[in-house]
Design brief:
- The chain is mostly helical.
- It has 2 domains: about 130 residues, no CATH class; about 25 residues, no CATH class.
- The protein contains 6 helices and 2 strands, in the order ααααββαα.
- A two-stranded antiparallel ribbon has the order 1-2.
Length: about 170
């Protein structure tokens, strides 16, 4: 997968990631004891990084900057350069996450929990890791498990509906 080819467009990247998701999930389901030793190669795969960047740039927190003072939504030009730098650092095993920006958000019951806001690069790497690891771990969950899973909510478990059929993550 990591042949040094040009960065794929989002549509092509999503197809490639979906195909690899399916394979990872099938392999994990077929052999629960299987070890996935080389997932780092997928984390810095251009397709995974492009999809991760798209998710980071379009999510609700994309207007908020971390300690790097850069909000993902503000990056219009230079995204490919950012992804190439992240890829090079991951590939050379030089990537190190930065400290998070701490922001306190008052909630309704009078408490003021702290929220950690990662840098843009850290968000992209976290998203890419999630893309790689989620289909592997999803294979271990039972159909009746709902909390913190794609396209499922804990509230759905109390309704008694059958779980949704997940065609892709």
């Amino acid at each position: 997968m990591n042949t040094g080819a040009l960065w794929p467009g989002l549509d092509e990247a999503e197809v490639r990631v979906r195909v690899m998701h399916t394979k990872l999930h099938q392999w994990a389901k077929a052999d629960p004891g299987r070890r996935f030793d080389d997932v780092a190669n997928l984390v810095y795969d251009p397709a995974f990084l492009v999809v991760a960047w798209s998710r980071v740039r379009t999510n609700k927190g994309a207007r908020t900057a971390g300690v790097d003072a850069v909000a993902p939504r503000l990056i219009v030009l230079g995204a490919e350069k950012l992804l190439a730098r992240i890829r090079d650092e991951l590939k050379a095993r030089r990537f190190a996450p930065q400290r998070v920006r701490e922001k306190t958000i008052p909630n309704g019951n009078g408490k003021v929990p702290a929220l950690g806001i990662p840098t843009v690069a850290d968000r992209v790497v976290q998203s890419s890791l999630k893309l790689v690891l989620e289909p592997i771990f999803e294979a271990d969950f039972k159909a009746c498990s709902y909390g913190f899973r794609p396209k499922r909510r804990a509230q759905d478990a109390t309704r008694g509906d059958p779980p949704p059929r997940i065609t892709h993550l």
